[in-house]
Amino acid sequence: MVTVEDARSRAVVAGYDLVEVAAEAKPPVCRIMDYGKFLFELQKRERQTKAKAHKVDTKEVRLRPGTGGGDLEIKAKHAREFLAEGHKVAIMLQFRGREMSHKELGIEMIRKFSGMLDDVAKMEQEPRMEGRRMNALLAPRPHS
């Protein structure tokens, strides 16, 4: 065990800083180091972990209650590509005018669309109305 004054003088002689590492320990633990370099290394590690973090994007597929079968297949193909890349797919079904009175057709279309992607996606958020739009969310199935 070294006194604080002795540790401080050793740090000055070495040309470094006296840094308290564990203040709650009895006695407190200090280290002689270059504090600026320590902070730089810490920031560098944080940047590297942030760069390695996988960010999940949400891609959107827009439908209408009158979207035909061929168009639905093309949109399902695009959604399949998004899911293969690891993205989530938001299904947005837009209602206009009198279509608002047939919301069950919208739910049926979203169920049909998600059924086309059932092998690669699972429904993360069930269809729900938000104004004139019905939204649902598909997430990629974990690889088994």
Kindly summarize this structure in a few lines.
By secondary structure, this protein is α+β, with helices and mostly antiparallel strands.
Topology as H/E string? HEEHEHEHEE
Number of helices: 4
Report the average pLDDT across residues.
89
Helix content: 40-55%
- What would you say the CATH architecture of the largest domain is? 2-Layer Sandwich
CATH superfamily label of the largest domain: Translation initiation factor 3 (IF-3), C-terminal domain
**How many domains make up the 3D coordinates?**
2
Distance between the termini: 56 Å
Strand fraction band?
A: 25-35%
Task: Give the class-level CATH name of the largest domain.
Answer: Alpha Beta
Largest sheet: 4 strands, mixed
Spans where pLDDT lies below 50 across 5 or more residues: none
Indicate the multimeric state. single chain
Shape: rod-shaped
From the 3D structure, determine the CATH topology of the largest domain.
Translation Initiation Factor IF3
**Strand neighbour order, sheet with most strands:** 3-4-6-5
Radius of gyration: 29 Å
Give a count of the beta strands, DSSP E runs of length 2 or more.
Answer: 6
Structural class: alpha+beta
3D architecture notes:
It is a single chain. The strands form two sheets. Strands 3-4-6-5 form a four-stranded mixed beta sheet, with helices on one face. The protein has a two-stranded antiparallel ribbon with strand order 1-2. The longest helix has 18 residues, at 35-52. The protein has helices spanning 4-14, 35-52, 69-84, 103-116, and strands spanning 17-22, 29-33, 58-63, 88-94, 121-130, 133-140. The chain has 144 residues and is an alpha+beta fold. The chain has two domains: 4-52, Ubiquitin-like (UB roll) (Roll), CATH 3.10.20; 58-140, Translation Initiation Factor IF3 (2-Layer Sandwich).
